């Protein structure tokens, strides 16, 4: 049996210095995301979303980034899901990207708001037909008796909407407005590079090195 305590890796691919990083964290994120895409890492757009419920218990799941700009990071989901209910009660959340092959992690913390109905409509209609039907078919996070429920729902809504399913009222986008960014680059001997960006009162971002 493998002893997981003995599993180790030496990180030696890249480095992250203050002089070579962007002063704007969005630009740094844009560079790293495009490098992850160019490196063909598996699902470079996948990110872990952490929320906290009214019981103060955190929960995580993986979602896909669908847009980003100076206003924040955008993803889409079912508003009635557990994450949707938790965000309704506590709008603060955290995101994490882990590009294993590049030995890089990006962490983002901030406040979350729903995107506009117009934004959600526009994105929804770019989705494949089966994904649009799936948004109606899945009562996300609810207990169901079996997969047959999903199959039956998909058939039902497919017959009802044919090729033009509208966006469900319970489905749409969220945008996290970053209040803190962290960029982590694995380095040899566990002396990793870790830069944190926080907004300054007069505008711009304060960039600081944290001990790993």
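-> sequence recovered:
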């Amino acid at each position: 049996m493998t002893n997981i305590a003995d599993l180790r890796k030496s990180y030696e691919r890249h480095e992250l210095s203050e002089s070579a990083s962007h002063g704007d964290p969005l630009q740094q994120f844009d560079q790293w995301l495009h490098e992850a895409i160019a490196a063909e890492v598996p699902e470079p757009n996948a990110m872990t979303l952490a929320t906290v419920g009214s019981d103060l218990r955190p929960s995580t799941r993986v979602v896909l980034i669908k847009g980003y700009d100076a206003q924040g990071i955008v993803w889409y989901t079912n508003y009635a899901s557990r994450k949707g209910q938790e965000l309704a009660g506590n709008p603060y959340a955290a995101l994490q990207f882990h590009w294993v092959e590049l030995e890089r992690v990006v962490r983002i913390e901030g406040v979350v708001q729903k995107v506009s109905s117009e934004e959600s409509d526009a994105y929804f209609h770019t989705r494949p037909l089966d994904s649009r039907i799936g948004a109606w078919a899945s009562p996300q996070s609810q207990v169901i008796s079996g997969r047959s429920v999903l199959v039956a729902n998909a058939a039902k809504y497919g017959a009802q909407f044919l090729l033009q399913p509208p966006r469900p009222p319970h489905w749409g986008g969220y945008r996290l407005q970053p209040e803190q960014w962290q960029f982590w680059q694995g380095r040899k001997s566990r002396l990793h590079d870790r830069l944190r960006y926080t907004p300054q009162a007069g505008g711009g971002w304060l960039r600081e090195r944290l001990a790993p």
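The radius of gyration is 20 Å.
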